[in-house]
Write the structure tokens for this entry.
Amino acid sequence: MQWHEVNFDGLVGPTHNYAGLSFGNLAATSNQGKVSNPLKGVLQGLGKMQHLAGLGMKQAVLPPHDRPHLSTLHGLGFTGSDEEMLAAAWSSSPELVANIMSASAMWTANAATVSPASDTADGRTHFTPANLASMYHRSIEWPTTGRILKAIFPEGNSFTHHDALAGGTHMGDEGAANHNRFCATYGARGAALFVYGQPAFAKAKDLTFPGRQTLEASQAIARQHGLDPARTVFAKQHPAAINAGAFHNDVMGVSNRTVFFYHEMAFENPAQVEADIQTTMGETPMQFIRVREAEVPLADAVQSYLFNSQLLSMPKREGMTLILPSEAENILTTKGYVAKVIASDGPINHAEYMEVRQSMRNGGGPACLRLRVVLSDDNLAELGANVMMDDGQHETLSAWAHRHYRDRLAVEDLADASLMRESFTALDELTSILQIGNVYDFQRG
Ligand code: SUG
């Protein structure tokens, strides 16, 4: 039986905008108020998916969420027609409307933590949607995320789903962005690395920006997924990394199989983290590529998103390929480092720069846009929706985006009731294309 790492990329939603909602995410806050281009954003994302599918990767798509999120307004006491609720919310708080209009579900590295069947006690693939408790606009994502995941991966002998962790910011969980899995081959038994920003009950005093993930949240996920404690490592992010704008650990490192490519400032004690990972992997040798501050300064790592690349094993290529944001090609230290790593006789042999700038301006690079799910050929046949990417799907979704998306969105446009209607029409049509059922609140009455 063949096992694959399948990348599920989030489609950029029709309300993609720059509201500057994420404190501690320097790209998002510095681009606050800029005019976005949702059409360009969705096409850039589709371009990345199509490119990887064309290279023989198993590539899939996750739909955007319904925005404005009217159920959230309902829960806050707004009543009346959809248009009346939106207008009343805008006159009460434009900031609230910006939050319920955010297209942030595109960053599917934060959708969930996924543990493959070969690592779990019951031999099923486990999914826990991330509660994303530390940012209000993201904390409203998980119920819809959970429904989408259940529609694609039907609960049963192969897949099982948990609710997001309860407990607010104490149990703050940001999903796969703070989780790495190491393995010799995708179907082999692997080891998990969970990275957290601070403990739940003795909050860190050395953080100026939020440490979004807590240790206790990571431990809860490992427990409920039935992971073997002897094959699980918990490591704390270096506070200097969070304070420099690395709000998720996937801004500081990326893994694939036995390779971990990361910046030394990701952790307070990188040598210890490497030793712990190697212990969990037993006889299987790990390959660590630890990048020094002297080679790539932390500020360049954060600005370029060098480590928010995808590190991929491709069917038709020797060695691994890095899929990097084009921003990393524009900074001397990161461009130079990539050239050096490719020229070395290490495990990474190819690098490709891709433009995902609409997402990057909100702090979302190539790796933020994808959720990795290890699936067997049998699992692929069990999927409950039409989400795999190929030329036909790419063409259909591009045409769909051209029909429905705007090419210009200013923050003031978020109050526009016709934007709401356009978005709901687009998403309703998308559920038919993806054959995913009525996953949105507005379809469920
Ligand atoms: O949670 N940005 C997202 C970016 C998430 C990136 N994901 C990973 N690193 N895996 C966030 O901060 C900005 C939205 C705004 O400001 O309008 C935002 O939510």
User: Anything to note?
Assistant: The longest strand covers residues 3-10. The longest helix spans residues 38-54. The mean pLDDT is 97. The pocket of N~2~-(3-carboxypropanoyl)-L-arginine is lined by residues 18-22, 25, 28, 102, 104, 107, 109-110, 135, 138, 177, 247-248, 250-251, 362-364, 368 (CB under 6 Å).
